[in-house]
Amino acid sequence: MSEPGTRVAHAVGSTALPPVAPLAPAAHDPLARAIRAVLVVGCLMVLSISHGVDPDLWGHVRYGQDALAACALPATATHTYTAVGHPWINHENLAELTFGWIEHHLGAAGLNAFTSLLGLLVLGLMVRNATREGASFLVLSVTILLATCAIGPGWSIRPQVFTYTFFALLLVILGRAFRHGARPDARVLWLAPPLFALWANTHGGFPAGLAVLALYLGCRALAALWSAGRGGWREAGRYGLVLAACGLATLANPYGPHLLAWLIADLAPPRPEIGEWYPLALPDPLFVVTVALVGLTVAAFIGSRRPRDVGQVAVLLVVAWQSFLHARHPPFLGILAGFWLPFHLEGLRGRLKKATPARTGAPPLFALWANTHGGFLAGLAVLALYLSCHALAALWSAGRDGWREAGRYGLVLAACGLATLANPYGPRLLAWLIADLAPPRPEIGEWHRLALPDPLFVVTVALVGLIVAAFVGSRRPRDLGQVAVLAVTAWQSFLHARHPPFLGILAAFWLPFHLEGLRRRLKKATPARSDAPPPSPRAVRLLLGATWAMALLLLVTLAVQSRSLWVNRSWAPVDALQYIADRHLAGRLVVHFDWAQYALAALAPETTVAFDGRLRTCYPQEVADLYFDFLLGNLPAFRWRSPTSPPFDDTAILRLGDPDLVLLSRHFKHGVKVMVRRSGWVLLYQDGIAQLWGRPERYGDPASPDYVPPAVRTIGNQKPRGYVRWPAFPSGARA
C-alpha cells in the first residue's frame, strides 16, 4: 500500500502487481485529520452504545472470575448438575479471564471502555489504511460508515470482539506484506503465527482466520506458479511455511490439538436453535446493509480499472456467501470492506470524475445532523431532489456522457444517507422516523395548515411572491434544482405551519442572486460579479477548533453513556430472580436458554443449572437434545437432534437429575404447555415474561420445610418495565 504521491520504480518478483499510477500530491488540508477524527468517533458511538447486554456476558465474567480465584482453568463443567465431570473445552479462556478481571477491578464502565478501545483500534486501522492509499474523504466516509453498519450488530461485550480485532490485525499484516505494485514481503507474514497463538486462546473464531489466510495465500501461491512457473515454487513454499506455522501456533492452548479437532467437529451439525446461525434475510436491516456492501464492492472492483488482487477477490466472494448464509458473518465482510474497498472505490470515483478530487462536506454534516434533530430527513430529501435535478440536467445535455456526473451525485447522496446511520441507534432511527411520519398529527398545532389570520401566512405569501418574481424576471441562469426544491418547500410551507423557516433559509441563500438580477434589469445596469475571497487564516483556525471540539464532544458523550451497562427488565428475568432470592429458593434449576448464564451467575453456588449457552463445550449432545425437546419440541426447522440421542421426550429434562425449579420464558410456548400438563408442579411466580415452577414434593407439600404457601406466591401478567444497572443481581430480601 504505497503512500499517496509516490511511485514504485519497478516491481521485483513473480507476483508483483503492476504499479499503480500515483495520485497527485494533495494540498495540505488542516481540517482533514480533524474531520477523520469526527468520523471515527461517530462510528465508534454506533459500535459502543447501540447494543444491550449479551445473554452470555454474565457467564463469561463469572467463569473468568472463578478461574482467577482458583488460579487454574476448570477441566470439567461447572455450575451445572447434568454434566458433572464432563470435560469442558473452553475456547474463550483468555477473553473470559480478561472480562472477569476488568469487571472485578473496573466494573461495567471498564468493560465498556475496553470494548470501545478495541473498536477504536479497528476503525483507526481502517482509516489509516484508506488514508495511506490516498482515498478521498468521500470514499473514506462511505466505506467506514457502511462497514460500521455491518460490524455493529455483532459488536458487543462478548469474546467475538477479539475475533473481529484479530481479523482486522490479520488484514493489516497481509496489507503490509502485499503492497500494491511492490514485491511481496514474506517477512511481515511471520507476525501472523503469534497473532494466531493469542487468537486460539481468546475465541473459537480463529479457524475462520486460518481459512481466510489459507485461501488468500493459496491464491497468491497459484499466481506465483502461474506467472513464474517453477521459479514460483520458492515463493509458494514461503507462504506454505507461514500457513503451517500459524496452524501450529493455534496448538499453544490448554487443550492442544483437541481444541481444533473439537471445533471442526462442532461446526459440522447445524444450529437452528441459535438465531445468529439463521440465513440473512429481510426484514433484518443487516440484510439491506450487506446487499449494499456487496453491491458497492462489486461495482468498485469491476469499475476501478486498478490492479485486482485475486486473493482479495476470492476471500470477498467466500465471505459474502457466508454472510448471507449465516447472520453472524456480515461483520467479517464489513471488516474486509473497510480495508480492501477504499483502494478500488477511489479508483472508480477517480474514473467517474476524471478530475482533481474535490472534498464534499455533506456527509459529516449529516452525521452531526442525525445526532442532533430528526429534521435531517428533510435535509436528505432536499439534497436528493436537488442532486436528482442536476443529474437529469447532465443526462439531458450530455447524453451518455452525463452518466459519469450523475454517478458522482449518486455517490455523494449515498454517503450522506450512510452518514445518518452514525447515531446511537443505527438504521433503527431512520426506520422509526419514516414510520413515525406516516400518521397525521392534528394534536400538534405546528402540523396544522398555514392560513389566515396567522401573520406567518402573510410573510410566506410575500416570500413566495418575491421568489417567483425574481426567478421569472431576473433573466439570469436558473438552477433547475433550486426551482424544484423551492417549489416543494413552498408547498410544504402552506401544508404545515412548521415548514416556513425552511423556505426562509432557502430564500436567504438562493433569492439574492436572482433578486439582484431583477433589480439591475429594472435599473438597466450591467450585472457585475466578483469572486468570493479565500477564507482568512483565523477563520480556518476557528473551523479547525470547532471540528476538534465536535470530536471531543462526541467522545465525552460516549464516555458518559458508557459509565454503566443497563439490563432491560422486560427481557431479563430480574423480578423472577429477586423472588427466588427473597424466598431463599435454591437447588437444581431448569432455566430458559437465554437466561441460564444470568441465573447461574446470580444464584451460584447454591443453584446449578440444567443447560446453558456453553452448549457442547461442556454438555453432552444427549443433554442438549433433552433440553431442547422440552424448550422447543420436535420441530426440525427450529432445532437439530442427534440421531444417537434417546428418543424424543419433552419431559425427560424434568426427570434428569431431579430438578427443583423450572424458570421459563412465556414467549416459548412449548415449555409452558409441558409444565401445565405435568400435574403437580407448583406455579410459584409469574409475570408478563417469566414463570417459576417448583417441584411439588418440595414446594407444594405443607409438610416440607421449603413449602411455599399460596399467600406468598406471586402470580400476575404485568410485563416488567424499565432498566437496572449491571449485573442486575437480586438485592437483599424485601421486607
Fold and architecture overview:
This protein has helices at residues 32-49, 57-70, 93-132, 137-151, 160-177, 192-200, 206-228, 233-249, 257-267, 285-303, 310-325, 330-353, 362-370, 376-398, 402-419, 427-437, 455-473, 480-495, 500-523, 537-561, 574-582, 596-603, 621-632, 669-677, 696-700, and strands at 566-568, 588-591, 608-609, 661-665, 682-686, 690-694, 714-715, 723-725. With 735 residues, the protein is mostly helical. The chain has 4 domains: 32-359, no CATH class; 360-439, no CATH class; 443-526; 568-725, no CATH class. The strands form 2 sheets. The chain has a 6-stranded mixed β-sheet, sandwiched between helices. Helix 4 (137-151) runs antiparallel to helix 12 (330-353), helix 5 (160-177) runs antiparallel to helix 6 and helix 7 (206-228) runs antiparallel to helix 8 (233-249). The longest helix is centred in the first third of the chain and has 40 residues, at 93-132. The protein is globular. The N and C termini lie far apart (67 Å). The model is unreliable at 1-27 and 525-530 (pLDDT under 50).
